[in-house]
Amino acid sequence: MKQTGLHLIIKLQQLDDDLSLVLSEQKGLPEEITLLDEQVKSLLLQLDAREKRRDDTLAKKTQLRADILAAQEKIKKYKDTQTKARNNKEYDALSKQIEYEEQEIKKSESQIRSIEEAEEQIAQLEKKGKELLAENRYDEVTPDMVPTDILKKRLSEAQAEVKTKREELDSIIKSTQAEVDDLVSKVEKHRALFSGESRVILSKYDHLRKGGISNVVVKFSRSACSGCNTRVPASRHASIIQGNFYSCESCGRIVVHERLFEEVALVPSE
What we know:
Layout: H1 5-23, H2 29-82, H3 88-134, H4 148-191, H5 198-210, E1 217-221, E2 224-225, H6 237-241, E3 246-247, E4 254-256, H7 258-266
Parallel strand pairs: 1-4
Antiparallel strand pairs: 1-2, 3-4
């Protein structure tokens, strides 16, 4: 039997379906792992941001306290020098220096208080988040409200789950690799058979398949597209019976006479 473009596309669909069936043994693990990887990445970013904020805050407070100590040392020095001032001009100049350092100390102390108040607000926010989580009021918890220890626990659990699922996926891949490789090879060889006008229908098939439609080529059954049950115009019935195809106006599938499926089944497997 001479194979037409429609025979080739039906066989290609069967091969693709066989490959999809074998890959389905992976139980959606690749997608789950991708989602878990994204979750791990998000948690790491949140924890890194908090650690940086904590480090920056600590460094700022340490610097401010060092500035206060330095200013206090200057004040002590200026006061010691002041007792030895030779005239009022020198005394007043030192007084201004002392006053300046005292103002700097007040500024630093004010900044430290602001930082500590911000730290307290963060602590209270996380405390509130912990209470809400304990009450299962998850929809009220914002990212900033999740306590750091819970974020670390979630990260550890997600990393452990990723490890487990990767091991499971690796095991499945190892057990099915030979079959997958064989089917991939058959698909590639079969696709090479398309030429000329048959490549047009191949292009249509690929477009629909990429759009999420698995059963792209369907039978003309009861005067309708068996993919979506939409009736085929009577004017196209004869063409389908003669061995041509009809593009369903509703779902876009390639509708062919069931005879073509039967003829493909008679062709020896590759």
